[in-house]
What we know:
With 203 residues, the chain is mainly α. Helices cover 83% and strands 0% of the residues.
Amino acid sequence: MKRYTALSATALAAVVFLGGCAADTGSEQEGTMPGMDHGSTSESLATSAADTEHNSADAMFAQMMIVHHQQAVEMSDIMLAKEGLDPQIIQLAEEIKAAQGPEIEKMTTWLQDWDEPMDSGHDNTDMDGMVSTDGLAQLEAAQGAEASRLFLTQMIAHHEGAISMAEEETANGSNPDAIELANSVISEQGTEIEKMNGLLAAL
């Protein structure tokens, strides 16, 4: 009986010891998990704050480039509604729409996130490269090679204006996303200008 009692006491002590270890481990885990969650939340908040940080140059860039892009899409739609055009002109118009449509949506979201108005309050017709109402009417009325020539001439000037606006953003803006888009505009539209000059020379 004495031996049984001694063994029982030993076993009981072991159980108590192991239970204490488990409780300590649980406490450590419980203490660690909230810390991990707080770290993730802090990182997320920091990223969100960085996304919304901007200056007046960033807002102006988005406001004006949206309008600028919208006209490029409008000009492309005018060309895509015509028949008998050179396939390369059709492809160019499709590429411009495909590139600038999503960029319009992106910049619109920025302005909403920044709590900035969509309208810059400036006369958009004064923007570099913008085609006048008469110019758009001429493009719509033109057909065949004449339409292609007019489209290329207008779009080259339009792209040059966009590049000028983008260069201003890279010099004066502060939002990383806006500056990244501006650099993309400079690069991609510069390449398209070279392509359009080649197409224009071949007409």
